[in-house]
């Protein structure tokens, strides 16, 4: 610690993860690694039909099975209180509420036994009869109850019908995207124990602070008597953002038995229990002049939602801010189906919206003969199109231009089917991307001690993103100490409340809170009369202090409401080259260039990993991933890693990733969220490349072989 309280160039450095060694050595405990003394094991009983009622449950054989301690179903379980809404506006139908079945795989009971094997065996012995109903599984099923504008996201500026009618050129496309699963590697786990009146839960959650509130409400215990622990999480991609019924049931079983209970979902259960990206259908209508300048944009989206569920599908949320266009209208609907609950999945809404809008823009480029990159530049939103305020930062132009240069776009022959490579048709496509600013309040506790070490504490977690590492880097730079001297204690709700790892909102909120804490600390130290260049250790020593601790806070969303600038999210552009085997219909990505504006990057290596992950997920979305429901039972028919296809190494070319842009002027640390932007423009870039290769416009993801034949 020096009088200037800072160390140059620690933020941004591509340092290795500070938790990396622990991870590869198996010393980083994931939820399934926790075992508590006296712990017993749970297995779920899941519905084998998609709709109807339970008419009979016979628990007797299961209860008599070896090792079984309890079997809880709706007709014998203690009642729970309904859960509250989370920060993303969704709640959950409380489990075991009644005899109704709303989807296949619904958790209708929990069995607890001494061993996991005994619990799994006994779960099969519970006899259940149903009065089955015909499930509603498809967005187009006329029986589906459709809500109009359920979240008030519909918007309108200007006069879209008039502008469309008057446009020189119009595009009208309907784009569909199949349901996709997050399928994180780490099987979701709950280990719940009641210690006196205190509930301690190890749970696979991206939102520990919210889970604490939810369990406190449902189990009627004060919040301070609930502790949620999630120091390491084996991937979430949004699956850990909601409160899920297996967590509640495990906690309930632990309460009934007054013993620690552990539940680990199986891989097929993951596909029915922790959400998925909803199937959606969008219609995009564009109006433009002959030079490709947009005069009208109409965006209508419908997404699937679980029966009785209320999850927002923010597909049209970003639309009004994407391009400078005087007349823009958005419409939002959702259809309730007998499908497992939907959830959020990386860039929820934004990635669907961009597939439709960026595909439609490619159609417009085709019709007007304007180059696709030039088309986007002609419609560039120099200021926020809704508020008219200047962006806090926006380097989308640079994303487009740097991407074009790295990719070699200039040499592209715009005519479809113009390039061959052996028996492959080769095509090149691109897409831009805009992301919404998102932030929640964040609190940290920052302490420095006499040995010159700092400790940062917060409830927020690291889902694989690099939270540990950037927390240490930001703290080290602001305090002028080495990264090795920063201890990071996260993923524990006994620490100050933090946002979920979600909406690409944690890093920015946390960084701002740490900066606030560092400022507070500097003031306190100033009061201690620090000498120029004096270290922490010496200063605390002189005053006989062991430790100095302060609290830091950020509320960026709150600050945004009275800001002169429009706080920006990340921006990106992607350029893809595909090869299409016309005889077999196989599409392969040959090259992929991704350029991202995330403001100031906190760690060049972990940020790059985010971009790689997003690009790989984008390839999956474009070409491979789709949940298949059995039309009779509503079962996810491909709910294993053998059947649900995700990209493997052969599907992913070398990725060319670049970060551009300036530090953001709204976030005091200059950083913007970037965990999701990397997926947003990938699928439309690939779909546009497929069109360039073949002349065929596929408006339905994933682009599987059957659609190419
Ligand atoms: N980062 C950076 N500089 C910035 C912003 C971020 O270097 N200016 C890097 C940091 O390493 C940071 C990471 O990017 O830890 C993500 O930061 P941020 O964009 O704030 O996103 P969150 O921390 O809120 O993480 C959630 C985000 C989302 S919403 C999904 S979905 C997703 C994603 O992160 N799920 C992931 N990336 C994931 N990565 C992994 N390994 N696993 C997941 O489940
Ligand atoms: Mo991300 S889908 O907001 O966890």
From TrEMBL:
Q: Does the keyword RNA-binding apply?
A: no
Q: SUPFAM superfamilies per the record?
A: CO dehydrogenase molybdoprotein N-domain-like (SSF54665), Molybdenum cofactor-binding domain (SSF56003)
Q: What's the name of the protein?
A: Xanthine dehydrogenase YagR molybdenum-binding subunit
Q: Which Pfam families match?
A: Ald_Xan_dh_C, MoCoBD_1, MoCoBD_2
The keyword Oxidoreductase is annotated on this UniProt entry: yes
What SMART domains would the database entry show? Answer: Ald_Xan_dh_C (SM01008)
Q: Which residues form the Aldehyde oxidase/xanthine dehydrogenase a/b hammerhead domain?
A: 25-134
Q: List the keywords (alphabetical).
A: Molybdenum, Oxidoreductase
């Amino acid at each position: 610690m020096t009088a200037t309280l800072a160390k140059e160039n620690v933020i941004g450095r591509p340092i290795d993860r500070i938790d990396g060694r622990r991870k590869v050595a198996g010393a980083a405990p994931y939820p399934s690694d926790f075992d508590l003394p006296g712990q017993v094991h749970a297995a779920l009983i899941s519905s084998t039909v998609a709709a109807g009622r339970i008419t009979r449950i016979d628990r007797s054989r299961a209860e008599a099975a070896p090792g079984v301690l309890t079997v809880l179903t709706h007709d014998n379980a203690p009642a729970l209180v309904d859960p509250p809404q989370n920060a993303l506006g969704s709640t959950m139908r409380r489990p075991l509420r009644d005899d109704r079945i709303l989807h296949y795989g619904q958790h209708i009971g929990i069995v607890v036994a001494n061993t996991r094997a005994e619990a799994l065996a006994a779960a099969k012995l519970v006899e259940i009869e149903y009065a089955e109903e015909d499930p509603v599984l498809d967005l187009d099923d006329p029986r589906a109850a459709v809500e109009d504008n359920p979240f008030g996201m519909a918007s309108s500026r200007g006069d879209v019908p008039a502008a469309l009618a008057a446009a020189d050129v119009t595009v009208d496309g309907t784009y569909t995207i199949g349901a996709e699963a997050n399928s994180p590697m780490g099987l979701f786990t709950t280990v719940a124990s009641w210690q006196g009146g205190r509930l301690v839960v190890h749970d696979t959650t991206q939102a520990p602070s919210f889970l604490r509130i939810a369990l406190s409400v449902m189990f009627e215990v004060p919040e301070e008597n609930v502790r949620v622990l999630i120091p390491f999480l084996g991937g979430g991609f949004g699956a850990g953002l909601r409160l899920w019924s297996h967590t509640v049931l495990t906690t309930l079983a632990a309460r009934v038995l007054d013993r620690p209970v552990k539940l680990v979902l199986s891989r097929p259960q993951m596909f029915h229990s922790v959400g998925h990206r909803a199937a959606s259908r969008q219609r995009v209508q564009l109006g433009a002049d002959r030079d490709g300048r947009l005069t009208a944009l109409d965006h209508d989206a419908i997404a699937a939602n679980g029966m009785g569920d209320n999850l927002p599908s923010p597909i049209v949320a970003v639309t009004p801010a994407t391009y400078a266009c005087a007349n823009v209208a958005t419409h939002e609907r959702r259809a309730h189906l007998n499908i497992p609950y939907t959830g959020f999945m990386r860039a929820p809404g934004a990635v669907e919206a961009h597939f439709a809008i960026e595909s439609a823009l490619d159609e417009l480029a085709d019709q007007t003969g304007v180059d696709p990159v030039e088309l986007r530049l002609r419609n560039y939103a120099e200021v926020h199109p809704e508020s008219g305020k200047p962006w806090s930062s926006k380097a989308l132009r640079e994303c487009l231009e740097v991407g074009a240069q790295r990719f070699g776009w200039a040499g592209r022959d715009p005519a479809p089917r113009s390039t061959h490579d052996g028996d492959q048709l080769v095509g090149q496509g691109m897409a831009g991307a805009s992301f919404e600013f998102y932030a929640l309040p964040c609190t940290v506790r920052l302490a420095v001690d006499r040995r010159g070490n700092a400790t940062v504490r917060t409830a927020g977690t690291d889902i694989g993103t690099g939270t540990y590492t950037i927390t240490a880097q930001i703290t080290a730079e602001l305090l002028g100490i080495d990264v090795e001297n920063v201890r990071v204690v996260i993923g524990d709700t006994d620490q100050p409340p933090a946002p979920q790892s979600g909406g690409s909102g944690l890093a920015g909120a946390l960084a701002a809170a740490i900066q606030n804490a560092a400022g507070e600390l500097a003031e306190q130290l100033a009061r201690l009369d620090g000498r120029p260049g004096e270290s922490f250790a010496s200063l605390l020593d002189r005053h006989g202090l062991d430790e100095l601790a302060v609290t830091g806070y950020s509320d960026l969303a709150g600050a945004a409401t009275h800001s002169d600038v429009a706080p920006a999210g990340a921006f990106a552009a992607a350029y893809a080259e595909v090869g299409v085997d016309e005889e077999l219909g196989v599409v392969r990505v040959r090259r992929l260039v991704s350029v991202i504006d995330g403001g100031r990057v906190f760690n060049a290596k972990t940020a790059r990993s985010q971009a790689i992950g997003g690009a790989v997920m984008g390839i999956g979305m474009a070409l491979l991933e789709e949940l298949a429901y059995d039309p009779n039972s509503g079962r996810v028919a491909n709910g294993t890693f053998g059947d649900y296809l995700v990209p493997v190494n052969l599907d992913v070319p070398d990725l060319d990733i670049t970060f551009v842009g300036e530090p953001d002027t709204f976030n005091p640390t200059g950083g913007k969220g970037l965990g999701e932007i990397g997926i947003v423009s990938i699928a439309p870039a690939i779909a546009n490349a497929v069109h360039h290769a073949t002349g065929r416009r596929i408006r339905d993801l994933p682009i599987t072989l059957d659609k190419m034949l």
